[in-house]
Specification:
homodimer, Arc Repressor Mutant, subunit A, two-stranded antiparallel ribbon, elongated, DNA-binding
DNA sequence: ACCGGATTGTTACCATATAGAACAATTGGC
DNA sequence: GCCAATTGTTCTATATGGTAACAATCCGGT
């Protein structure tokens, strides 16, 4: 039983559905590609009870011991209100600890526990597999090209302000 | 492979925040790039009271008169429960009409009104500008490469079940 | 030392986007 | 006619992100 032919009109004479306008947009293609990454990453991280954001913060804190929450926010490009919830969860699970930052009683100095490190090591391996699967159609050269192109978009700044520091 | 042993994030070691692990992931770079697209698109579409999803559906219905909601869902890669809300909104705003599909009283035959077409024409122009701005650092050749690479990811299918027609 | 503005973290609320389950009406194969 | 599949719908849940307001703290100028 096939029924997707011309029954309710004519979508393109033979059942094909056109999306020329959308497919002509890089943003749309980016979205579709990103969703593949996102959904697959989500599944893979679920086994560790991690999500995109918690993994990212875990990674940052591991690479930058004693980082503050606002530094996490700035580096990840999210709001600091967002980091609170993430760190809350990581802390409750014993993966990260909030120590007081020496010299600034407003800020925390985040640190990862051994459990956090162990979980991260496992998760990062899983993510490597995930990326390899998603990108299986691309050669190493393609992947390098893609990475380079994405990073150049990465740096585009259309109207922000980032000259203070 | 190596990870987290060389702590490869200490270029400056006094103010710089490392994110070597994350930046080494294509998925992370994709996310950052996509977020730039998304946020900017959102702002630009806001002037037309459109959002990503409503614009996409509008585009599809324009390109495919009498398309059904499930066809929209399948083409966009979303759930059909999602299309309901979008079409609801488009219909309330008089941009799209739900006509009954001749020959199938379950399905709708979606069509765009003149107002919908007019709005779409304006919006698509705005989006072209938006893309041009976001991609201003990339040459036309770069953009073509990026598009091609994204589409190849686009086609990756790890679940492997869509060969029924 | 004081004051006021900036910073850090926090909480609360909202918007967007998506998935999934359950359901009614309808279709279509048998 | 029966029953499974399909279409649309509603409700719920999750994830991500932004804004706004607030307390505590810091910092710079006076």
């Amino acid at each position: 039983m096939k029924q997707t032919d011309a029954k309710a009109g004519d979508e393109k004479s033979d059942g094909e559905i056109g999306q020329a306008d959308l497919l002509g947009l890089i943003g749309y293609n980016m979205k579709r590609a990103y969703m593949l990454f996102y959904q697959d990453l989500k599944q893979n991280l679920a086994e560790f009870d991690l999500r995109q954001r918690t993994f990212s913060v875990l990674s940052l804190v591991i690479e930058n011991p004693n980082i503050s929450q606002i530094e996490v926010a700035r580096t990840l490009g999210i709001e600091r209100s967002g980091t609170v919830v993430i760190v809350d969860e990581l802390e409750e699970r014993g993966l990260v600890v909030r120590e007081r930052a020496p010299g600034d009683r407003r800020a925390y100095a985040l640190a990862v526990t051994d459990a956090g490190k162990a979980l991260y090591r496992k998760a990062i391996k899983r993510i490597a597999d995930h990326e390899d699967r998603i990108l299986s159609d691309l050669s190493q050269s393609d992947r390098k090209d893609l990475m380079a192109l994405l990073r150049r978009i990465h740096m585009v700044d259309k109207g922000g302000k980032q000259s203070e520091d």
